[in-house]
C-alpha cells in the first residue's frame, strides 16, 4: 500500500482528490494539509511514501516545502504549470509535476511511478520548460521584482531587503532590461507567466 500525503489549500479539491485516490486499491491518503507550513510536521508524524503538493498555499508555498524535504518522493499538482516552477521543483528533488486538469488516473499513475523511483512530468510543460531556458534574473533581482509584484514601493523593498533605494532601483532596472520589458509592470507579468517569481 502506497501511503500518500495531500497538501492543497482548497478544501474541496483536497477532499475530492483524497476520495479519488482511496478508490485505488494500492493507494491510501494518510494525511491532508491545508497550509504549506503544516506539511513538515505532518511528514514527521505520518512518514508518507509520496507527498503531493500544491504550489500556492498559505504559510509556505509548495516549492519551498519541497526544498525543505530533500530525499522525499514528491509530486507537484498545480494550476500554475509554468516552466520556472518546473525547473525549481526539479532542482528541489521533486520527481513529478502535473497540472490540476489531469485525470485521476494520471495522478494515480504518477504517484505509483514516483513511489517506484521513477519520474512523471507533464510532457507539454517539460517541453515549455526546455524552450523557455533558464531564469535570467539573479536572486536579488527576483526578490525585488517579487516584492514589487506584491505592491511594495521602492522604499518598502529597500527596507525588506536591507538595501538602499538606489540599489533596489538598479535591481529593478536590470530585471526590466533582462526580460526585454518596456516597464516594471510588463516585466512582472512576464516573470510571473514564466514562473520566475
TrEMBL record:
Span of domain HTH luxR-type: 130-195
Domain of life where this protein originates: Bacteria
PROSITE patterns the UniProt entry points to: HTH_LUXR_1, HTH_LUXR_2, RESPONSE_REGULATORY
UniProt KW keywords: DNA-binding, Phosphoprotein
SUPFAM superfamilies: C-terminal effector domain of the bipartite response regulators, CheY-like
SMART domains to which the protein is assigned, alphabetical: HTH_LUXR (SM00421), REC (SM00448)
Gene Ontology biological-process annotations: phosphorelay signal transduction system; regulation of DNA-templated transcription
Domain Response regulatory, first and last residues per copy: 3-115
Location of 4-aspartylphosphate modifications: 54
Annotated GO MF terms: DNA binding
Protein name: DNA-binding response regulator
Native species: Actinoplanes lobatus
